[in-house]
UniProtKB/TrEMBL annotation:
Name of this protein: C-type lectin domain-containing protein
SMART domains in the record: CLECT
Composition-biased stretches (Low complexity): 71-82
Gene: Cnig_chr_V.g20883
Keyword Transmembrane: yes
Keywords: Membrane, Transmembrane, Transmembrane helix
Signal sequence bounds: none
Domain of life: Eukaryota
InterPro entries per UniProt: C-type_lectin-like (IPR001304), C-type_lectin-like/link_sf (IPR016186), CTDL_fold (IPR016187)
Length: 292
């Protein structure tokens, strides 16, 4: 058996040992550098939070330059300074409190539902189709020269129409108001023009108490508002193209030609034109109530 022996060179071994040693030292330096960088990074990250905690809590005291002393935050000047510093930082950092909300407006009770109402001075009546308002007025004419058309013109100027009577309640309430006005004038009998005209074929000859006339205001319906004086509607051929209705207003102390024929509130078939009797002339205007 043959054995081969390798020649050993001490200089090569030494060189290799030196290279290994140098590599180990470089590796150690690299690890120390990484560790140092990590520590510096941790320091830089944690220091602001620690400082913020101390600043937020006051830190227990604050140094006042120039006086050479250390004053506690419990003193009045220290408290004031700490408060100012806190406010200073508070202005630059977002607050943890929720954003300020404006106060809620006070609770207002619901508004009551609107309803139809009449203007001041107008009588208010509940009709099947809503509130109906009636104004009773004196024309200022005491000699009879005030026709039914004049009364209609007066109502039109108020945004209303010459009205009829829906029922007995309306008829008598209007008569009562007109009577008060008549007595205030020092008179005992007068007439109110009513919003009605004769039906075809009934201008002269009566067609009965409920079929001779019709209401003209466009709102009044039915026959409950008719209540005639004795012998009315008559068969007279009154002047004019149509016949009309007036309501008699009679004071309790009236004495005259109409006694026994008309009482306060009765209706009378009559001419539509002037000159009319009884001479004191009244009107009654009607309109729908207004929602308010």
């Amino acid at each position: 058996m043959n054995f081969a022996f390798t020649t050993f060179d001490p200089s090569q071994l030494f060189s290799r040992l030196m290279a290994i040693t140098h590599a180990s030292q470089c590796l150690m330096k690299l690890k120390r550098a990484k560790t140092m960088k990590l520590l510096i990074l941790v320091f830089l990250v944690t220091v602001p939070f620690i400082a913020a905690i101390f600043l937020e809590g006051g830190g227990g005291g604050r140094y006042h330059g120039g006086g050479g002393g250390f004053s506690s935050s419990s003193s009045s000047s220290g408290s004031s300074g700490s408060s100012e510093e806190h406010e200073h930082h508070h202005g630059h950092r977002p607050s943890n409190r929720p954003p300020h909300r404006p106060p809620r407006p006070p609770h207002r009770p619901p508004r009551p539902p609107t309803r139809e109402q009449c203007d001041d001075g107008w009588l208010e009546f509940q009709r099947p189709n809503g509130i109906w308002c009636i104004l009773v007025g004196y024309s200022g004419v005491s000699n009879g020269w005030y026709s039914q058309q004049d009364a209609q013109n007066t109502c039109t100027g108020m945004g209303a129409v010459l009205t009829g009577f829906q029922n007995e309640n309306e008829r008598m309430k209007v008569a009562e108001v007109a009577l008060d006005k008549l007595i205030a004038l020092g008179q005992t009998v007068g007439g109110i023009w009513v919003g009605a005209t004769n039906l075809p074929g009934c201008r002269v000859n009566s067609c009965g108490p409920y079929n001779t006339f019709q209401w003209t205001d466009g709102e009044t319906t039915g026959i409950e508002g008719f209540k005639w004086g004795v012998g009315e509607p008559d068969n007279s051929n009154w002047p004019g193209a149509t016949a009309c209705i007036q309501q008699f207003i009679v004071a309790p102390n009236y004495v005259g030609m109409w006694n026994g024929y008309f009482v306060n509130g009765d209706l009378d078939k009559y001419q539509c034109v002037s000159q009319a009797t009884p001479p004191p002339r009244f009107y009654m205007c009607g309109k729908r109530g207004v929602r308010r």
